Fold:
Amino acid sequence: IRRNVQQMQQWFVAKNPIFEKCVVPVRKLHSSLLLTSIPDERRGEAKMACHEAGEEIREFLGDQPVKLIASGISCFNGQVLFTRLRTEPHDMLQAIHDALAASFRRNGFPVLDESAKSWLEEDEEPHDFKAHASFIKVSKAIAH
Structure:
């Protein structure tokens, strides 16, 4: 995935050198599996919530291997270019997201909805998870 993302970044930079300042370093590529707020004094509780979710995910996975696949290019508000991430088996990222969201909510942490615009209500279910990895951000160029 990193090699392919790096090739995409190089292609964009070759088309327009201004993208050089927008490139997200490949070593910093990631996909956020959960958006929450953790006060410093609750970090221990957050670690326990992660541990609980990890147990559930390991139980769900068993010995089954997971393949992570990056495909396509899209953008957010003309500011961020990203690639979609999926797994084989295809429901694995959704299962990980759901386990994390459920564990953090059980432990009293707020969970941000997929649009990142509002906190989920106590009885509200999270939307389908759409994993992605951003590889070009206009905000990086503005910061330079």
Remarks:
- The mean pLDDT is 85.
- The radius of gyration is 17 Å.
- Residues 113 and 126 are 6 Å apart (CA to CA).
- The first strand starts at residue 67 and ends at 76.
